[in-house]
Write a structure and sequence with these properties.
mainly alpha, about 300 residues, globular
Amino acid sequence: MTTDSSTPAGDDNLRATGFMVLSMALFATEDFFIKRITVEMPVSQMLFIICSTTAVILALLCVRKGLPLVTRDVLGPQVMGRNFCEAFATISFVTALALVPLTLATAIQQATPLLVTAGAAIWLGETVGWRRWTAVAVGMAGVLLILRPGLDGFQPEALLVMIAAVGLAARDVISRRIPSRIATLQLAFWAYVTLTIGSGALWLVRSATAVPELRVWLELAAAIGLGVIGYLALTTATRLGHVSTVIPFRYTRLVFAMILGVILLGERPDALTLIGAAIVVGSGLYALMRERRRKRAIPPRGRSLMR
């Protein structure tokens, strides 16, 4: 029996889709502000301010919901491994944002779900048929079109985005083995604690500090607010609707990033970038469709600055 949009379940899926698209718009706008801020402030300093403030906000949300901040589970090796991957990926991606166009970085980042598929098969023993393996291979070919190594227009800094995608995929693969009794808010809080420590250490090592003007502080506040609200919208989407219905709409982040990049940053993605991005997104959607037929998709645990 099918469920149409007039039923309660259909209405929930429709609202969940709206929340998912909203969260992707907010995350893309957050990335836009982060890219602007990196012109005025070292990446490590900016990350420390954003992550420490976000950690405090998430701690308050945990307290409000009656969730303990410190438990044996959240200090376990799986959560620590997940947080390390999150921190590694976030620092890599934000560093890349300072060096390459927003559109290019976001397009490469869309390969993360394909890497999760490969990682789950290799390290978790999940069944992945030849069709999904083909989708992974085609998607990686799309990434090569975007990167174009050895050709004119190759930007070595863009490899940082690919490194970030690998880190995010590792985070999501590890998350599938984390006990469900650990709340998403708890995971997010400890991820940002880890990011605060990592970015703070980098800031100390670099010893570079900027004293920004009021506009930059306002942009920092906007990035923090957009990230937190985007996280809440993403969580609402995955809880309200069927995950297999809403997850494909995560690719709308690329659309919003392209709009912001072209209109506000003056970026002009070339044909190879657009073709490569279309191949990556198409491969990801096909892999999701195949997984949906095999079983219901598993929601991601927690989020990062990249999501």
